[in-house]
Amino acid sequence: LCLDIDNVAKEDIPYIKDTLMNDTIIKPLILFNSPSEEGLKGFIKIPPDELTHGKYFHAVDKYLRSKYNE
Description:
By secondary structure, the protein is an alpha+beta fold. About 35% of the residues lie in helices and about 15% in strands. The longest helix is centred in the C-terminal third of the chain and has 16 residues, at about 55-70. The model has no long low-confidence stretch (mean pLDDT about 95).
């Protein structure tokens, strides 16, 4: 599952990257600065099943918003 986090202040990117990389629930495989340098992109491993992909997408979205959205 691809992560795309936009509109992040440059000075906040290292903290957010470190925080997400240490999140034991989503366990990102990789996180990197977006080409615009105003956000992050990354990947989370989920089962390769098109029937459950949408459920994982919504679950990850809900989790990230509830835990980190300020």
